[in-house]
Structure formats: structure tokens, C-alpha cells
């Protein structure tokens, strides 16, 4: 097995504010293999952006601080390298794409000039060669008539087309890793789907790894190889997209999946709110909202990640000694569904039961 391209290890990122220390990322570890798409998912405020921006130290420091941990990129610890070294990696070997394409484009320059600049920043090529490559990139990301549009200004493109331009710019230096933070959230649904398909195609073509941040599990199903489920600064569950969708094993993951709109339903939020990251609850961060919480969940440290299947890890006491994980995984639920109508989970909804009990 080759080393992962990116290995985030025991990362602790905090914000030292007047009101106290916000522990936004609190001991997060995950790997990204070459050519792999890893989705980081979780509710708003769970630390997804802070974790991903810390990879290239994009968070404001101060008030931000990487208090502990390592970010190994191709074996080099990016938390320890010089700012100069980091600048050459940013936009070069690691490219970021953000939610709002507007913020990545300069309104006073034509898009082509901006892509040419991005290319020439990281590659020693002539202006003409860079311009040809810019046209090629615009074409590859699906801008129609790229040759004619290269000298257009950002405002002459629609939101979806602008995001394509930004993606072309991110690809300019042929990065090994693309970090995309909710790149489709601001776009309408059809455009979202097109951009996701585009990223999937480009990944294969450019042989990139992608870290994709989203709070939308529908998007995860669409593009992820592996998934990191975050909650309140912690990794709650991690595994392949099949592990997480077919055998969700943390009550939080299950709750997120239950929020996915089913037939004729709209998105439902999980009950309760995120904990205060300045004073997180003792024990499992999710216990105040968890229907299965026991005294063990309410005391001590947040549970360790435990391996439940190869490559599938869960931070929940139910996978430790003395507990029956079937209660969470639902093996017991489907059993009892067949016999007593599935009264194990608290949210028994009689209408759901009559329509087959499919709560997803
Ligand atoms: N500059 C800052 N100063 C203080 N706290 C911050 C700062 N930036 C982020 N935080 C806090 O860090 C926590 C994690 O935020 P983050 O943006 O990573 O969440 P997220 O999972 O990306 O959410 P979203 O889905 O809304 O983008 C939040 O509680 C947020 O308020
Ligand atoms: Ni975010």
C-alpha cells in the first residue's frame, strides 16, 4: 500500500477569542489517497471548513491557531513549513475552490488573463502557451466557445459558468489535490449536478485527489469514495461511501441520513442544536441529541474511533465492550420490524410504518 497523499493527524485548531477558546477542530484525523474523493460532511458549524482550510493554513491566524497535530502532504508536514514554501504549494499542488465563485475572481480583469496568470505563477511557459492552455481548460470545464469567451469579464458569466471558470483556474497548475468547500451550494440544483459531474470527470482525467466539503449527503452519494462525518470538531464516523450509506453506524450519521428528503418529503433538521464549542459537553459531543445516550456517553472524554469493519471507524460507546451495536446499526431494528413493527427507535411514525417503514 502506498502512503496517502494527504494525512491529517490529530489536528487541533482553535480560535482564541475574547469570549474564550473555540475548539473548532478537536483531534481530527483522516487520510486522502491519490486519486480519491473524500467528502467531509456534517451540519453547519461542525468544523469542516476550518479543518480543510487548515491544510494550507488559510485560516486567519490569529485568532486561529493550529494547536496540535500534523498535516502530512506527500510526506511533508504543512503545519511546520515556512509561509514561502506554503505559498508555492497553495494554488500549485493544492488548489482550493470555495462556495462563492465571485470571491475567487477579480472583477476588473478578463477571466482568461486570470487563468493565464495562475498558469504562469506555477509554470515557466510563454504567454501564448499559457493562453492556449487557458482556452483548453475553459473548454474542458464546459465553457461553450471558450476561444470567444476567454476575454470576457467575470460579470459576463452566470453563477454556474463562473464556478466553472474558478475550477479551470484551480486546475491551471495541475494540482495533486483539489479542496472544494461547498462549491455547488450557491448554485441551483441542475447546475449543481453538472458541476459535480464535471468534478468527477476532471478527477479521472487529471488524476487528482479531491477533498469535498458539504453538508448535503445527497452530494456525498454522488461523488465520494470515502466519507468523513464531522460533528462539533470531531470525526464521528469514517468509511467508504458504501459503509456510510449502507451500514451507517454512528447515531449522528443515522440522524443525518434520516434528514435526507424521502419521497414527497422535504429536508428535516436533526432535533436539538450544536454544542457550544467553547464549552462542549462531557463525554460524547452528540449525547445531548442522541436517542441512545447512556450514562457512559455523558461522562469522560469523547469516545475513541473504533474499527467496526475494515476501513470503517466509529466514535461511539456502543461499539465498545459491554454494548450491543446492533441497537445503533439497526440490525436489531430490521429484525424487530419484521416481528413487532420496529418499535426500537424512538421516532416511530405510524404513517411511515404502514408505507413500509422506510424512513430514509
Ligand atoms: N475566525 C473565527 N473566529 C472564531 N470562531 C471561528 C472562526 N472561524 C470559524 N469559527 C468557528 O469554528 C467552528 C467551525 O466552523 P466551520 O466554518 O469550520 O464550520 P463548517 O462545518 O464549515 O460549517 P458550514 O457548513 O456552515 O460551512 C464554528 O463554531 C465557527 O463559529
Ligand atoms: Ni464550512
From TrEMBL:
Subcellular localization: Cell membrane
Recorded topology in the membrane: Peripheral membrane protein
InterPro entries registered for this protein in UniProt: AAA+_ATPase, ABC_Ni/Peptide_Import, ABC_transporter-like_ATP-bd, ABC_transporter-like_CS, Oligopep_ABC_C, P-loop_NTPase
Any single Gene Ontology cellular-component annotation: plasma membrane
Annotated ranges, domain ABC transporter: 8-257
Ranges where the record places region Disordered: 336-360
PROSITE patterns membership: ABC_TRANSPORTER_1 (PS00211), ABC_TRANSPORTER_2 (PS50893)
Top-level taxon of origin: Archaea
GO MF: ABC-type nickel transporter activity; ATP binding; ATP hydrolysis activity
Catalytic activity, as annotated: Ni(2+)(out) + ATP + H2O = Ni(2+)(in) + ADP + phosphate + H(+)
Keywords carried by this UniProt record: ATP-binding, Cell membrane, Ion transport, Membrane, Nucleotide-binding, Translocase, Transport
Entries under Pfam families matching the protein: ABC_tran, oligo_HPY
Bias kind Acidic residues: ranges: 348-360
Gene Ontology BP terms: peptide transport
EC number annotated for this UniProt entry: 7.2.2.11
Main location: membrane
Assembly mode: The complex is composed of two ATP-binding proteins (NikD and NikE), two transmembrane proteins (NikB and NikC) and a solute-binding protein (NikA).
UniProt-recorded name of the protein: Nickel import system ATP-binding protein NikD
Organism, scientific name: Haloferax marinisediminis
Amino acid at each position: 500500500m502506498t502512503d496517502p497523499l494527504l494525512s491529517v493527524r490529530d489536528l487541533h485548531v482553535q480560535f482564541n477569542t475574547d469570549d474564550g477558546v473555540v475548539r473548532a477542530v478537536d483531534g481530527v484525523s483522516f487520510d486522502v489517497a491519490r486519486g480519491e474523493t473524500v467528502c467531509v460532511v456534517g451540519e453547519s458549524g461542525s468544523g469542516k471548513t476550518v479543518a480543510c482550510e487548515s491544510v494550507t493554513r488559510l485560516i486567519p491566524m490569529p485568532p486561529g491557531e493550529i494547536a496540535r497535530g500534523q498535516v502530512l502532504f506527500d510526506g511533508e508536514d504543512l503545519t511546520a513549513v515556512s509561509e514561502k514554501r506554503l505559498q508555492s504549494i497553495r494554488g500549485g499542488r493544492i488548489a482550493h475552490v470555495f462556495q462563492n465563485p465571485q470571491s475567487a475572481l477579480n472583477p476588473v480583469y478578463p477571466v482568461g488573463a486570470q487563468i493565464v496568470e495562475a498558469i504562469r505563477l506555477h509554470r515557466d511557459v510563454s504567454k501564448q502557451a499559457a493562453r492556449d492552455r487557458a482556452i483548453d481548460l475553459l473548454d474542458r470545464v464546459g465553457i461553450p466557445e471558450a476561444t470567444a469567451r476567454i476575454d470576457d469579464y467575470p460579470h459576463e458569466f452566470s453563477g454556474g459558468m463562473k464556478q466553472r471558470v474558478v475550477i479551470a483556474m484551480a486546475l491551471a497548475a495541475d494540482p495533486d489535490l483539489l479542496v472544494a468547500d461547498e462549491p455547488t451550494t450557491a448554485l441551483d440544483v441542475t447546475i449543481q449536478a453538472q458541476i459535480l459531474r464535471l468534478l468527477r470527470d476532471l478527477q479521472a482525467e487529471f488524476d487528482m485527489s479531491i477533498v469535498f466539503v458539504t453538508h448535503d449527503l445527497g452530494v456525498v452519494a454522488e461523488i465520494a469514495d470515502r466519507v468523513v462525518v464531522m460533528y462539533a470538531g470531531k470525526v464521528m464516523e469514517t468509511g467508504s461511501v458504501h459503509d456510510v450509506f449502507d451500514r451507517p453506524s454512528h447515531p449522528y450519521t443515522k440522524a443525518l441520513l434520516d434528514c435526507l428528503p424521502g419521497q414527497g418529503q422535504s429536508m428535516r433538521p436533526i432535533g436539538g442544536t450544536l454544542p457550544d464549542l467553547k464549552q462542549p459537553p462531557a463525554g460524547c459531543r452528540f449525547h445531548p441529541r442522541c436517542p441512545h445516550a447512556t450514562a457512559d456517553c455523558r461522562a469522560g472524554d469523547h469516545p475513541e474511533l473504533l474499527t467496526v469493519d475494515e476501513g470503517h471507524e466509529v466514535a461511539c460507546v456502543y461499539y465498545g465492550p459491554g454494548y450491543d451495536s446492533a441497537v445503533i446499526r439497526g440490525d436489531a431494528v430490521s429484525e424487530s420490524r419484521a416481528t413487532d413493527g420496529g418499535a426500537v427507535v424512538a421516532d416511530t411514525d405510524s404513517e411511515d410504518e404502514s408505507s413500509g417503514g422506510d424512513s430514509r
